[in-house]
Amino acid sequence: MITTQHPSTKQDILQYLLKEDRATAQALAETLAISPQAIRRHLKDLEEEGAIEYKSVSTGMGRPQHIYQLSPKGRDRFPNRYGEFAVSLLDTLAETVGQEQVSNILQKQWERKAIEYRDRIGKGSLEQRVAKLVEMRQSEGYMAEWYLLEPTEINQNATEQFILKEHNCAISNVAESFPSVCGHELEMFAAVLPDCTVERTHWINDGEHQCGYLIKAR
Fold first, then answer.
1. What is the pLDDT of residue 212?
2. What's the pTM?
C-alpha cells in the first residue's frame, strides 16, 4: 500500500506566509484548521529556528498583536536558483562583451549599492551607522553581526573600532565565479563609511568560515 506523505504543519505555515506575506496566529489557526495553542507552539519553534519573525502591532485597548512573516532564512527554505542564474548571466556577458566590461558593470553595481546604503544609513554616530549597515545586510540574507572593540590598556587613546562579521555569503555563487565582487564589496563598505578605514580580516573565499571586517574611525 502506498501512502502519501503530507507536508508538516510547520511547512504549511511557511508556505502560507510565503504566499500571503504576513499573518496573525489566529489567522493561521483558522486557515490551517488547528487550535490556536498548537499554532503558537509551531510558531515558537519556527521563531527559534530563525525561519520567521514578527512585529507587535497595537490594536487598541488590548494586548499588542503579533504579525508573523518569513525571515530571509525562512525564504531560503524554498528552492531557488537565482545564484545559478546570476552566474550564467555573467558568464554570457563575459562571452559577449568581454571580461573587462563585466568587471566594469560589477563595479558600477557596487557603486550604486554604496549610494543606496549611504542614503539609508544617514548621518548618525559611527556606532549607529555600523548597526544600521548590519541591519540592512541582515535583511538581504546575510547572517551579519557587529561589536565594538574596547580600547586596550596599552592604547587607551585608540579611535573607535568595530568588527563586522558575516557568517554566510548571500551571493556565494557569484563570489566563487567572480571573486572581484568581494573587492568591490570592500570598496562599498569604505564608501558607505567615508570617515573610516575598512580592512578585511577574514574571507570565505579563502576557505575561512566567515567574512570579517575591521572598521576604524579616522
1. 93
2. 0.59
Q: Which amino acid is at 210?
A: Q
What pLDDT, on the 0 to 100 scale, is given for residue 131?
A: 96
Dig out the grid coordinates for 211 from the structure. Answer: 567574512
CA distance 28 to 12: 9
- Backbone angles phi and psi of 15, in degrees to 5: -65, -40
Residue intervals of the chain classified under CATH 1.10.10.10 are 9-75
| Strand partners for 196 | 217
Buried/exposed code over 66-82 (b: 16+ C-beta within 10 A; e: otherwise): bbbbbbbbbeeeeeeee
Burial group, residue 24, by CB count within 10 angstroms (0-12, 13-18, 19+): middle
Q: pLDDT by residue (tens digit) across 133-179?
A: 999 998 887 888 999 988 764 455 678 899 999 987 878 778 888 88
| Full DSSP string of 7-31 | PPHHHHHHHHHHHHSEE-HHHHHHH
Bridge pairing between strands 22-23 and 144-149: unpaired
Nearby residues of 34 by Cβ (< 8 Å), 6 or more positions away: 9
The CATH number assigned to the domain with range 82-217 reads 3.30.1380
Percentage of residues in the chain having pLDDT higher than 90: 44
Q: Could you say which architecture CATH assigns to the domain 9-75?
A: Orthogonal Bundle (1.10)
Nearest to 32 by CA among 51, 53, 21, 17: 17
189: amino acid identity, one letter: F
